[in-house]
Design brief:
Helix content is about 40%, strand content about 0%. It has about 120 residues and is mostly helical. The longest helix has 20 residues.
Length: about 120
């Protein structure tokens, strides 16, 4: 945000809000503020990936109340690591569909207006 050096505090605040909200949601609340349109770079949908799923399953395995299951403590340690890594890695993973953002509205499916008679 070096482009805001020497600007009033209100303009700096608008640029900061645009930066934070734009990076997380893809929506810029102050489009006329300096800095222009800021794209979404944090991907909340990426948190649900195979690594976070494997980590959650390992954590669930470690809390099963059966004494005879092997390696429950190792599964808990591995599960924490995989779940944390999967969530953090997925947050900063680029979106597979860059034209969409978190707040983008989706259109309803189009229904045909023709009538069908079943007589």
């Amino acid at each position: 945000m070096t482009h805001t050096a020497g600007m009033p505090i209100a303009t700096k605040a608008q640029a900061f809000i645009n930066s934070i909200v734009g990076r997380t949601t893809g929506y810029n609340p102050f489009p006329a503020a300096s800095g222009g349109k800021i794209p979404q770079t944090i991907n909340p949908n990426g948190m649900f990936n195979k690594w976070s799923g494997i980590g959650a399953a390992s954590l669930l395995y470690s809390v099963i109340p059966v004494k005879m299951l092997p390696h429950r403590s190792k599964a808990k340690t591995l599960g924490k690591s995989l779940l944390t890594g999967g969530i953090l890695g997925g947050l900063f993973d680029p979106d597979s569909n860059p034209s969409s953002n978190l707040i983008k509205s989706r259109s309803a499916p189009v229904m045909s207006t023709s009538e069908v008679s079943y007589t």
